[in-house]
Give the backbone structure.
Amino acid sequence: MRIIAGSAGGIKLKSIKSRQVRPTLDRVKEALFNMLGQSILDSVFLDLYAGFGGIGIEALSRGAKKVDFVEKNRKFASIIKRNLNKTNLINFGEIYCEDVYNFLQKTSTQYDIIFMDPPYNKGYVKKTINIILENRILNSRGLIVIETASDEKIDLGKKFQMIRERKYGSSQIYIYKLSL
């Protein structure tokens, strides 16, 4: 697992073998950030189900202003901190070691981009999206990026418009914006 581009490009990130986390493959990460393009610049980014922090740190490396990482596993959260230190991006990231739903219920921050990569096929996406909508934490022009299993179909209903959908092996990326 490494940072692909930007200020920390090429730096290898710490990770550990665990069945509880599934780091996004480099080719999927590169494709995702190519799809997001300039929207990353100066964005306030939320990395839900953050694992080792690879997506959020990539966002920082590519010009995000701030990233909040939410990961309930203490061991994984400490690895995010080590990775932020290793990339010299620690001052731009905040780590919340807690349940995603609890975090979303209490945050008052509005985000430009919300990325989520929850455990596949467990129903987390709908519940997470509902809390995001209820608490209005996505900016009106913000984006929601969802990584799921390639066989998991996501439909966020009429409140969202799908911008992109791409399949990469066993993973699928969806990008949505709010319908105005």
